[in-house]
From TrEMBL:
Source organism: Nocardioides jiangxiensis
Positions of the Chorismate-utilising enzyme C-terminal domain: 166-423
Name of this protein: Anthranilate synthase component I family protein
Top-level taxonomy: Bacteria, Bacillati, Actinomycetota, Actinomycetes, Propionibacteriales
Organism superkingdom: Bacteria
Length: 433
């Protein structure tokens, strides 16, 4: 029987519009089923250029501008299409053009593909080291995973503060000024970096899913643009009963190099006042966002500040849930929540204005959302973090990644910059020739 990895290689080599929604790194709360699909020439896909406000429809070898808002066009396509249709794709950070977010050049601000050719794979519990069924196991108990880690030097302890580059120091100081002025209570300060590599996107993704299994792992390929995701964070789930759930992450520590150190770091994450304050502010923001699209009295927080353990990090996660209002479609609700509050800060609009002033480069696909939307109203999307975007380059491939973290008045510049580096390091590792 063909493995998902073998099937993925074959499909990605034969088609220019491909996806893999990868259930190999599933959690108890997420799927353990993979869906690998591709589009034929006559199949429909959409791309969005936020700079020019153009949504382009691709089908039958032709491309046509059909609108100016990706959410409106996608909703119309879903309504007009087959009742059993499912769309796979991403919204980049600048997709809501009514909000202050700079468009990025070089890749579409959104890609959505209507699926027709689809194959599913059910993952065994031990299919991926540290993945499905092993979400709480520390790295030293893995077999293949542990060997790989030792060869790479093993996971780091909590990073020591380090001297940040001048541009990060300046941005951090500007954020602190905005915090003291009351313009924001918490801001997710991020930056981008680009690396050229001879490792192709298919090989890089197979490395990434082994090294960093995650519930929102996945791959999307659309005519020269490749998204490689190993995200742990749920942006939004809408189930068949129209219950919407989001799971914001705020607070991260590395895994320890021994069981004792790992437990110390886990406890530190769960009890540290700074981490808890960051998480509470974002949870309150998400309660407000979810409350705008859900029935009055239905919004709840069934899990507040729980620690989830992944291959390389512990995360502080809350869950916010509510029942969608009858007058709202799923796409309209996703638009209203966008972008994820964990990637903006609080309050959302004012904080996005400050972010646009202090960050040197546009976020692009990073900090957006990636997943699937079905015509029957169901959907499941993750936040685009711990992810790579690849495009062809002279030396082979150009990979861009984003990294960052939440900044409050209690934050230290050196500590925050060190955190951004160990978040990025695991992604960069897969690009070594």
């Amino acid at each position: 029987m063909t493995s998902p990895e073998e099937h993925f290689r074959e499909v990605a080599a034969a088609h220019d519009r491909v996806f893999w929604l990868d259930g190999g790194g599933g959690r108890a709360w997420s799927s353990r089923r993979s869906m690998i699909g591709w589009l034929d020439d006559d199949d429909v896909s959409l791309t969005f250029d936020a700079l020019h406000h153009e949504v382009t429809r691709h089908a039958g070898g032709s491309s046509e501008v059909v609108g100016s808002d990706i959410f409106d066009v996608l909703e119309a396509e879903i309504a007009a299409g087959p009742a059993d249709a499912q769309w796979v794709g991403y919204f980049g950070y600048a997709c809501r053009t009514d909000l202050p977010a700079r468009p990025a050049a070089g890749v579409p601000d959104a890609v959505w593909m209507r699926t027709t050719n689809l194959r599913t794979f059910d993952h065994e519990v031990d299919a991926v080291p540290g993945g499905a069924g092993k979400e709480a196991e520390p790295w030293w108990n893995w077999q293949a995973g542990a060997r790989h880690e030792r060869n790479q030097g093993g996971p780091a302890s909590f990073p020591e503060p380090t001297v940040a580059p001048r541009d990060y120091e300046v941005a951090f100081a500007e954020v602190q000024e905005a915090l003291r002025a009351g313009l924001t209570y918490e801001l997710n300060l991020t930056y981008r970096e680009a690396v050229e590599s001879g490792v192709g996107p298919v090989a890089a993704y197979l490395r990434l899913r082994e090294l960093n299994p995650a519930p929102y792992a996945g791959y999307l390929q659309h005519r020269g643009t490749h998204l490689l995701s190993s995200s742990p964070e749920r942006y939004a789930l809408v189930d068949r009963h129209r219950v919407l759930e989001t799971k914001p992450i705020k607070g991260t520590t590395p895994r320890g190099s021994t069981p004792q150190e790992d437990e110390r770091l886990r406890t530190h994450l769960a009890t540290d006042p700074k981490f808890r304050a960051e998480n509470l502010m974002i949870t309150d923001l998400l309660r407000n966002d979810v409350g705008m699209v859900c029935e009055a009295g239905s919004v709840e927080v069934p899990a507040l500040m729980e620690v989830e353990s992944y291959a390389s990090v512990h995360q502080l996660v809350s869950t916010v849930r509510g029942r969608l209002r009858d007058d709202l479609t799923t796409v309209a609700a996703l638009r209203a929540l966008f972008p994820a509050g964990s990637m903006t800060g609080a309050p959302k609009l004012q904080t996005m204005l400050v972010t646009d002033d202090v960050e040197e480069t546009p976020r692009g696909v990073y900090a957006g959302a990636f997943g699937w939307i079905a015509a029957d109203g169901r959907a499941d999307l993750g936040v685009v973090i711990r992810s790579l975007v690849a495009t062809p380059a002279d030396a082979g491939w150009r990979y861009e990644l984003g990294t960052g973290g939440g900044i409050t008045v209690q934050s230290d510049c050196g500590e925050e910059y060190a955190e951004t580096r160990w978040k990025a390091e695991r992604l960069l590792r897969v690009l070594a020739d």
